[in-house]
Amino acid sequence: MNTLHKNTGEGGPWDGFLHRPTPTLEAVAHRHRPHLEGRRILVTGASGSIGSALFHTLTLAAADPIPLDLAGPTPTDVTDPDALDRIFSLHRPEIVLHAAARKHVPEGETTPFAVLATNALGTRTLATVAARHAVRHLLLVSTDKAADPVSLMGASKRIAELILLASPRTHAVRLANVLGSSASVVPTFLAQISQGGPVTVTHPDARRYFMTLPETVDSILTALHLPGLLAPDPGPPIRILDLARHLIAQSPHPETPITFTTLRPGDKLQETLLAADETLTENPGFPLRTIHTPTPQPDLSQLEDSILRHDLPQLLDAVQSLVPRYRPSQLLRNQLTQAVPA
Predict the structure, then answer these.
(1) Domain containing 46: what range?
(2) pTM above the 0.85 mark?
(3) Phi, psi of 200, rounded to the nearest 5 degrees
């Protein structure tokens, strides 16, 4: 029977879409249990799609997961060093999986200060606190949008990568679009299909790399065994139009129409896994490749000052000095004419 499933990353209407065998969270937990059992592991962004899947998998693997999230029972902001110090002193995590982030591309184009404060400065704060508490592993969940970014969100994640790569005992894994996550297009398409359409696709040839939630969790946990910046092989890029058609075909509404809109500010026609100045090498015995990337020591003073002053021109200058290949979208450039420093 065709149904619209919950966005669990397993058993959803995208099963078989990737044309490759994909694991379940239970299988991922079983594979990693020997290295995780009994370990105190803090998960930031634990109520998000990736964070909650990580937390569930760690529980299945008999680890001792510690949730940290703005929406949790004890809301904690990764930009608050005092709150983080209290959490680290109380729980003494050995491993930190940093999944908390503002992940939506449009959000970066309309609320740039909040996105940079969370994704960049929040990562620096977390890394500082983790080092102070002698955390053995700090792993950043990054995105392919950090490769030659055209969105502010992607640039913020590239800055987060630079922060982590300049710190001791840290790792970062650059992931593709996660099918069914709250930041993916799947929930939007499912909602549009359930309402009879139309399903809105930005461009007939827009392509993305895709992974399932279990593949994502497996990549994150595998990355703990390897240093540096890492990336899985998500297979070839797939047209978003083909994803929309697949979801429609799996639904009770196979006649749902599709309409084309336009690429949003900060969108690429096709994502890339690597920046122009990056290269890949294989890691024998592991499904992750190492990304060799320039790693200058990031100076965040100008970025921090621009956020405190709410100064958009200074903010964009700071981002471009940290990520030279980044160019602001037309939407952000239009805002420059209206920006008045506080």
Answers:
(1) 25-177+209-233+278-336
(2) yes
(3) -100, 120
**CA-CA distance, 160 to 123, in Å (whole number)?**
6
Task: Give the C-alpha separation, 45 to 21, whole Å.
Answer: 28
Question: Does the residue 259 lie in any domain?
Answer: no
Q: Is 195 a domain residue?
A: no
Domain count, the chain: 1
- From 6, 103, 145, 268, active-site residue: 145
Residue 118 within any structural domain of the chain:
yes
pLDDT (tens digit, 9 = 90+) per residue, 60-109?
999 999 999 876 666 788 999 999 999 999 999 999 999 999 999 999 99
CA distances to 42, 105, 125, 249, 272 from 167, rounded to whole Å, are 18, 27, 12, 47, 26
> pLDDT of 145-166, one tens digit each?
999 999 999 999 999 999 999 9
157 given a catalytic annotation: no
Domain presence at residue 186: no
